[in-house]
Amino acid sequence: MIDYSRFLSRSAERMKESEIRRMGTLAAQRRDIISFAPGYPSPDTFAWADFQEIAQRLLTGQDGNVLQYGPTRGYRPLLECIAAIMESRAAPTSIDRLIVTTGSQQGLDLVARVLLDPHDVILVELPTYTGAITAFRNVMASMVGVRQEADGLALDDLEETYQRVRVDGRRVRCLYLVPNFQNPTGLLIGRTKRRALLEWAERRDVLLIEDDPYRDLYFGDSVTQDDIRPMRADDEGGRVIYMSTFSKTLAPGFRVAWIDAPAAITAKLEIAKQAADLCTGELDQRVVFEACRQGILDRQAPLLRAHYQEKRDAMIAALREGSGPELRWIEPAGGFFLWPTLPEGIDAQQMLPRAIERGVIYVAGEAFFVDGGGNRQVRLSFSAPIIDHIREGVQRLKAAIAQEADARRR
Amino acid sequence: MIDYSRFLSRSAERMKESEIRRMGTLAAQRRDIISFAPGYPSPDTFAWADFQEIAQRLLTGQDGNVLQYGPTRGYRPLLECIAAIMESRAAPTSIDRLIVTTGSQQGLDLVARVLLDPHDVILVELPTYTGAITAFRNVMASMVGVRQEADGLALDDLEETYQRVRVDGRRVRCLYLVPNFQNPTGLLIGRTKRRALLEWAERRDVLLIEDDPYRDLYFGDSVTQDDIRPMRADDEGGRVIYMSTFSKTLAPGFRVAWIDAPAAITAKLEIAKQAADLCTGELDQRVVFEACRQGILDRQAPLLRAHYQEKRDAMIAALREGSGPELRWIEPAGGFFLWPTLPEGIDAQQMLPRAIERGVIYVAGEAFFVDGGGNRQVRLSFSAPIIDHIREGVQRLKAAIAQEADARRR
Would you call B266 helix, strand, or coil by DSSP? Predict the structure, then answer.
């Protein structure tokens, strides 16, 4: 039997399994478990009948290219459609800046490979999206975290962190941000802070990676278009690499997302993608294009907002109901996630077996921190479970917390 | 205007555009051009009606997971199906050794990332598949070429190359091979040579990456199952990482391929894939699974063999017809490619503008060589064009060669 470890690259030696994916595997092993773990959109909301009809028309065989290899940049009509979406987000662009990616995860991977060498410094939010952490870790970049406040990244900590890295003799190359309804916190970066971040990037000669998957899922009671305006819209210096996706609005099963970046960088992303997967699935791209062209995406958006708002409200109501352990959170104004802090003395990771035993699962906060923090926090996704399960799951969670607190007191 | 080159990673600085993809872009610009450039399967052969029906049933919305994120390893029933395919190839396997990839290109990329550090040596055939070259180059591996003979890799050159690398103080980690109807040469590695390569890998402590996309496309007149038997089938030492795909037999638009590797390596490939694209498209995987389950794949195989054999025959007949420039080739017994050598003094790359002017396009040999060779060779794909276009394209090619030879003589 060969010991294969001696054949592994240094990058492979350091690779760690995604905590979210691990929770998904755990959850799949018990049928009765209620999962707040993965940030899955709700399949009830997918436009099944439309997709069925679109697929039917595409698969007649009249156009052989529907199942052929396609251009690495993406299906041209879809790229034009994405350009129109960018314009509707106040960020007009041109085709040479755009590339379709096989989901946003591939976008993160390509950006990491094109911009980061081993030990290069990239600043990330504390906490930040685990998928980004994995992509940056796999190119052996050095991630340094910056604290967040209620309106997003703390500017003073950003500058201090930057200076600390500089004193160390290292250069900060990029800052990765999820400005709208961040994964995992649900936070929204404030309007003036967005401007300040752009100015800071310009002053410090840093590129901003703006990851924007949730922006269409704002909740009508408090958010305006101005609040979710991409930083890319005000990027006069050419500092922003903007990413977004159809996974949360149409369906993740299609694996279609995009990057808008300075043309010189997009040209490199294209070559990186040639080696990564040649092209994104042509059928998937055409279904997504048709869904845009036929107005299905526009029709879906308000339905999705109402759907996820109702689920957020149900989760919060269930958490507030009755007595029980004291949890604190900032109410998310959009997206998929609630990010509560557990009572003092309770460790989210250590509590997990007890929660699973009670039939509920979440992602412990640590997975989202590059500095080892987050041990008292949990990410609860309210997006996928039905309302009854949200209520029941929250009761189970509260029972697990109470039991855990009790066990600690003894 | 920012100079973005100072933001690029060292890997990105070295990235080069794929010659095949570049030819594809060129070809797309002229409607009347006959393209022997990309190795595209023929869309006429796709099982359109079956795919239409399968998609119809999958997209009813009854099973929400059809358009959801899926497990990184792949859709479980498809993995079981792949295990059965491996068994039919005389290489029984187990589920923990398998992972679905987003096309074989992703397989190459993941294998490269998990096994190769910058400057690590990987041996490749002279010539070899450009997509592999790009994947290995993007992890900054050092590719060293080994000469081929009519029955595949030259064993003496393999050992000499190995020793040369060792004397250099470097370690050979892997050997990458396409044993069946190689891209670009169409060569088949002989039966005894396959055994010898396995023994060599064992003796020299090297992993074999066996890339096997074309094996089902053998031509009935000369090839037996024994000739295309995977090296993986006789791999007692656990040396082989085996890759194959549904792109050439069902359709590339689905982006579904797989890797069979020692479980410890597959576990790392899975983590690399988590960061690369989370999961392969679920709809694509389910269509492919249904196509296997319903026997469509089995039904397609003999049709495809007849189809591509007819095209190969048409291309060879057209090349032989009449007088004209003298080309030499080894007749491919399967696959998509013919690999002729041009008359002495003619450079394939330099001749390209003349060929395009005449309305035909190919890939010049250089793109497939890691040592700068191949300047007199061209890769002609007979897979996609219809027979009439094959005939006409070959006439155009011969005219271009004659004209080029004429111009040289003056």
Answer: helix
